[in-house]
């Protein structure tokens, strides 16, 4: 028995940040996840890392994480390695972030996205992150693709506020 769900490949460290509940807004230059609202999405961890280290500074400065907390979070995100479907999230609404968002709201959105400069990007709410019980090895694909996940790999409870 298995479930078939849509899947999205995400580079590290962002895939781990999503599945550990730190990143709850996915950002894209187009409304890729808009049709996924109220659906479950599988998260595939790409082989490549996100280019640059700005995310590390962001976690320390905007999320008030100590260096050791950032390292623990990164280690947790690597628990299954790369090239795997590692977890599931629930997809919420998608909207275009305007350039005139009030500064306080912009900071909240940036913290949820673990990224700055969100104006004119499509933001999608992600919730109820949960790691599979073990990794499902799979080649990644561009955009959204379909994957069959054996039912015994699907966790019963979402992760809540791990970090």
UniProtKB/TrEMBL annotation:
InterPro entries: EOLA1/EOLA2, PUA-like_sf. Transmembrane segments: none annotated. This is ASCH domain-containing protein. It comes from Ameiurus melas (Black bullhead).
